[in-house]
Specification:
Order of helices and strands of chain A: HEHHEHEHEEEHEHEHEEHHHHEHHHH
Oligomer: heterodimer
Strand order of the largest sheet of chain A: 2-1-3-10-4-11
Shape of chain B: elongated
Radius of gyration of chain B: 32 Å
Number of domains of chain B: 3
Number of strands of chain A: 11
CATH topology of the largest domain in chain A: D-Maltodextrin-Binding Protein, domain 2
Strand order of the largest sheet of chain B: 2-4-5-7-6
Structural class of chain A: alpha/beta
Strand content of chain A: 15-25%
CATH architecture of the largest domain in chain A: 3-Layer(aba) Sandwich
Shape of chain A: globular
Chain lengths: ~325, ~500
């Protein structure tokens, strides 16, 4: 009897240890571009997530709002969003726990053959955009810059992938999209398609941060996991932000997106890739809060967000600071 | 999954081409709207992403299919509304199919039910037209939630109504043969509905209003990313669908093939002139042989009479043989005459029991030792020409018993039974012979076709039976189990009972 008891206890202990040592599996949402992947693929390939006891499963999405909807469906734990989807965070749908980078990946592209050379020439033209994303945002800024409204153009609401095909096939005259779709369209157009404007054009009006987000319910239950993930992400950022590592990171991004290395390398200029120290310092001295405040003001001005919300309501600065300790 | 849906569509199309009627038309429409719904959902998933590589393989097969769908040039409004068309027409067509299968008089006679069922789907299609939808949700804050929940509610209501109708219908069927047919149809319907149910909660307006904050508040998350739709559940639904659809389509194809063959036989009669001619030769040859035999008898009688002391006993013997041969010839002539001269019939309400009794008496005269078990209710009336119908049943009884004789099962009873099945009165003749092979099945209704010795059978029996049943607005079905026996079903329009007739006459008086 004692032997059986000892055997059972040994089994229980082994199982408990096994469970305790098992990695926490996380479904992480990303978009197939360098900006979305630069830190997370580095973290996976360099073993930073494994060091924190996290097993990362990457799941590809087309845009940020879809990632938030997937989190609400329960299939995704954490994810990356571009600038456009931040309005959903301001409106309380998700919380930001880490800044990824301030980007310049969004462009309004136009075809010369369609007779477009300036933003004003968009009047009456077929323009494709992906609503709810930074594509919609940059097109809106471009129209406002030329004193035009949505009524002045023929707006076609499409998904990000259809924009590429529609632009390449000539079904639309212009479109607002982001890298690497911008590069794909420009390269395939044989000199016809060019960039009318990008995020930099509107730097005086807004900043375009991209962030890592989580649902508040998930964060409340798994604060430790979110912290571990951020810690690993910081290590990855420290590696990926060094120019000498760009090619290595681009290779990992290319592998994940099933594209060639050059396509990924072309995107390394889409943003200034921050190291963890910049983020931690920015979170402590209010610089990052300032970025999100400017962004929120731009959303309020454009009508995408109804009223002012304290930035700390939807940005978890404590996670950003705590992960750096 | 995409291949499964397309295969189902192709099968339903082939089924429709094989037999163009309301049932196959509805099944084709059902799979077409299902395919439309699935293709739009899969396009949406391809564009939005969020599925694992395993799931991707399960849904699209190869990656190039997913990529093609992902880069398909279509606006979100077009995609969403096409999804709405598939989503709202499927329950409607499904309900029409269930109504078609329903023989419940209260439902079948009220054709307006089918038309009334169009109201909610058409209304939903109007409401979900993107500009209309946007206008409607701008009217009141509750409108969005009402539309999203309202449409899903009526969809579930229609599916429940369909399930109720089909189950009720199935419960009403008592004959195993018809139950089996219905079961297979049900399997196919259930599998198509299960495929539809996987994505029917996905609201189509989510495709074109996904980024509206108020919409995201009303519909949390994306249905297609629901954890319930995991690999195991998908595989189970896919496997069930494949099996059930295969069973259902096989049954329908077989049924369609039988009907097609029946139709083709009408045309084939003309082409079978050679066969008929051959049969006529057999008949003429047989009669000629008989006449030659009679001539021999006459000659012998003449020789006997030429003798001075003619033997009266021999003469009586010759005369008896001659008379018997004459009777046999007359009987055969009569049978052949009935077979070919059955154009004119008079349909009158007749008790089925009386018809079966007449057939059984005639059968008893031919096979006095045969064992016949009859289960005919006394009050069932059919609209028929009594002589022809009795002759028809007699033919089936004769065939059945001869099949048992061939199989050596003379100690077992032949069964003549009546079933009241939905709108039909079905007369079943069940034998325990050797059954009918698939090859024989193709020819059993041919004129002058017989698997028996042609000296005793001229192969006009089943040809005559089928012609008579059709002239009674009915149909003939056969269900055979090799080595165990066969069942022939005379399916006649249900007329009523003798009690109805008596009550009717009383009212007239």
């Amino acid at each position: 009897m004692k032997k059986i008891f000892a055997l059972v206890m040994t089994l229980v202990l082994v199982c408990s240890c096994g469970l305790a040592l098992a990695d926490t599996k996380l479904n992480i949402a990303y978009m197939p571009n360098y900006a979305s992947l630069w830190s997370v693929v580095t973290g996976i390939n360099q073993g930073y997530f494994a060091e924190e006891g996290l097993d990362i499963q990457l799941v590809e999405f087309a845009d940020g709002p879809t990632i938030i909807a997937a989190m609400e469906s329960g299939s995704i734990d954490m994810g990356y969003i571009g600038p456009g989807a931040h309005k959903l965070c301001i409106n309380g749908r998700a919380k930001i726990f880490a800044l990824s980078q301030i980007g310049d990946a969004d462009h309004v592209l136009a075809s010369k053959k369609a007779g477009i050379s300036t933003i004003t020439d968009l009047k009456g033209k077929k323009v494709g955009y992906s609503s709810g994303t930074s594509s919609e945002m940059i097109l809106k800024y471009a129209l406002e810059e030329a004193n035009m409204t949505w009524d002045d153009i023929q707006a076609f609401e499409m998904d990000a992938s259809a924009l590429v095909t529609a632009m390449m096939s000539g079904s639309i005259d212009a479109c607002a999209c982001w890298s690497p779709s911008t590069t794909t369209i420009i390269n395939a157009s044989d000199g016809d398609v060019f960039s009318l404007c990008s995020n930099k054009t509107f730097a005086h009006r807004t900043v375009t941060p991209a962030s890592w987000i989580v649902l508040s319910g998930y964060h409340e239950k798994n604060a430790d996991t979110v912290l571990k993930f951020t810690r690993a992400l910081y290590k990855a950022m420290d590696f990926g932000s060094k120019p000498e590592n760009f090619e290595q990171v681009a290779q990992w991004v290319a592998d994940q997106c099933a594209t060639d290395l050059q396509t990924a390398l072309n995107q390394t200029g889409d943003a200034a890739w921050p190291a963890s120290a910049e983020i931690i310092a920015g979170a402590q001295d209010g610089t990052i809060e300032g970025y999100y405040k400017v962004q929120q003001d731009a959303f309020i001005a454009s009508g995408a967000v109804a009223g002012e919300v304290p930035v700390s309501d939807y940005v978890l600065f404590d996670v950003m600071i705590e992960a750096g300790k | 999954m995409i291949i499964l849906v397309l295969v189902l569509l192709a099968l339903s199309f082939i089924l429709f081409l094989t037999r163009r009627n309301r049932e196959t038309g509805l099944i084709m429409a059902l799979t077409a709207v299902l395919a439309l719904h699935w293709l739009t959902v899969l396009t949406y998933i391809a564009k939005k992403g969020g599925i694992t590589p395993d799931m991707q393989t399960l849904l699209y097969g190869i990656n190039s299919i997913r990529t093609s769908m992902q880069y398909l040039v279509v606006t979100l409004k077009q995609l969403g509304y096409t999804m709405a068309v598939g989503r709202y027409l499927f329950p409607l067509v499904l309900l029409w199919l269930a109504l078609y299968y329903s023989y419940t008089p209260g439902i079948r006679r009220r054709r307006w039910i089918g038309w009334a069922a169009c109201t909610l789907p058409l209304l939903s299609l109007v409401c979900y037209y993107p500009p209309v939808f946007e206008w409607l949700i701008s009217l009141a804050p509750w409108m969005l939630q009402a539309l999203v929940n309202g449409t899903l509610s009526w969809i579930l209501l229609y599916l429940a109504a369909m399930a109720g109708l089909i189950l009720w219908e199935y419960r009403g069927i008592s004959m195993p043969y018809y139950r089996r047919l219905m079961r297979r149809r049900c399997a196919m319907i259930v599998s198509l509905t299960a495929l539809y149910a996987l994505y029917c909660p996905q609201d189509p307006a989510q495709v074109y209003l996904f980024y509206r904050n108020e919409y995201m508040g009303a519909v949390q998350g994306l249905w297609y990313l629901n954890p319930a739709l995991n690999m195991i559940n998908y595989l189970m639904v896919a496997a069930t669908s494949i099996v059930c659809s295969a069973v259902g389509f096989h049954a329908l194809m077989r049924n369609a093939y039988e009907n097609l063959r029946e139709g083709q036989e009408e045309i084939a009669i003309q082409r079978k002139f050679d066969t008929a001619s051959k049969g006529a030769s057999v008949f003429v040859h047989s009669v000629k042989n008989q006449l030659l035999a009679n001539r021999v008898l006459h000659k012998r009688m003449g020789q006997e009479l030429a003798k001075e002391n003619a033997d009266p006993e021999k003469l009586r013997e010759y005369q008896r043989t001659l008379a018997q041969a004459n009777e046999v010839m007359l009987q055969r002539m009569e049978e052949l005459y009935h077979s070919v001269k059955s154009n004119f019939i008079t349909l009158v309400p007749t008790p089925l029991e009386a018809v079966c009794q007449t057939a059984a008496e005639r059968f008893g005269r031919k096979y006095p030792d045969a064992l016949l078990e009859m289960k005919i209710p006394a009050d069932v009336l059919i609209l028929c020409d009594k002589i022809h119908m009795a002759e028809t049943i007699y033919n089936l009884l004769t065939n059945g018993w001869e099949a048992q004789l061939t199989a050596g099962r003379t100690q077992e009873s032949l069964c003549l039974e009546c079933h009241q099945e939905r709108l039909w009165t079905v007369v079943e003749v069940r034998d325990k012979g050797n059954g009918i092979t698939a090859k024989q099945r193709k020819h059993i209704y041919d004129p002058f076709y017989s698997s028996k010795n042609t000296n005793f059978s001229w192969g006009m029996g089943l040809y005559y039976v089928r012609a008579t049943v059709r002239s009674h607005l009915g149909s003939l079905r056969v269900d055979s189990r090799p080595g165990q026996g066969s069942s022939f079903y005379l399916q006649l329009p249900r007329y009523g009972s003798t009690n109805d007739l008596i009550n009717g006459r009383r009212k007239e008086q």
